[in-house]
Amino acid sequence: MLSIIYQIPMGLIETDLEGNIQQMNAKSIQLLMPQFFSYGLNGTNFHSLLAFMAPNLLSTVTDSPVISGCIINQQRQEVVFNDATGKTSRHFIFTVNRLDEKSLMYLFDDITELYLKEKLINQILQDKAVEQSKFEIASGVLHDIGNAVVGFGSYLTKIKRNVLQNETGTLEKLKEFITKNYQGLSETLGEKKASALGELLNGVILSQNAQTIDINRSISDQMKIISHVQEILNIQRQYVFGQSTDRLPVNIRSVINDSIAMLFGTLDKKNIAFHFDAPAVNSKLNADRTQLMQVFLNLLKNAVDSFDGINSDEKEINVTVIEEEQKICILIQDNGIGFNEEIADKLFTRGFTSKKDGTGLGLDNCKKIIEAHNGELSVTSDGLGKGAVSKIIFYL
Predict the structure, then answer these.
(1) CB atoms within 10 A of CB 145
(2) Which of 139, 160, 216, 296 is most buried as measured by Cβ atoms within 10 A of its Cβ?
């Protein structure tokens, strides 16, 4: 039984409360022994190594009031490694249990590959969000964006294939083995250790499965967004040449949600808090869905851009949907730079822009689309430094 545990494909270390190593499996030796030597340590005390590699995690463990049970559960931790090129960062997931009054059990694994995949997805989303901000009515621009969308879909498909290769089959087999031989493990290790080992292993499996599901769901959502982008491109081409499109019942909450999803990467990158308040079930509005997405994307992007050059920890964008008997009102509020009366008078003038790379077409197009849907659009501000409010009213 001990031989099987020794070969578990993740780090497993049992220490006393001072960090002196009592048991250490093969994976732990493989991951950590070179680090003990690189820091000039003798390899007998795990806490001495954590003091260099992950001092915050060590503090959490040593300061914990837990007498028996879980101290840290599935916590992601950036770990500092020494290698030939100097200090580098790796990303680990840790679970730490207090087994009894004298001992601790550490279970950990290197999830750097998963972290890099998530980072890649976020970078793709951020890059795509930048592209969305450049939508303008011009056939050449539409053609370039269309090509970019196709490439984006190819990258997402490639990422999805890579994620599907991250299977937990080995861990599932180990879990099955431990379940079948639980009695023997209890006799060998003791009831508490055997139970803790089973729980820790199950937690890791659940966590990895959940992470894979989340990534796949995110990729699926982005593929849907790509479809929306292609719809927007098509509707803009039709708009350029004056062609009409059919209007069908659409759910405003759903349209805004899809528009917001396309800007999540930018919101996260700029550390902007976002709040969305809307009824769970919206009235149906006969509208062109992709034209409305074009409007909301433009207004939301303007709100995001209002924070350029602002250093603040309290950047916020709030979207509120208010339904009344004969109308639907949407408010997009930000606490960004705002604007003065001189700017306010020119906002909807075609060709006017306050942005260095703007064209002055965005708000003018938005206003025309909203008015064509029996609505009104206004953008107001109380002055510089006081944010702005975009208000859309649809009359039912």
Answers:
(1) 20
(2) 296
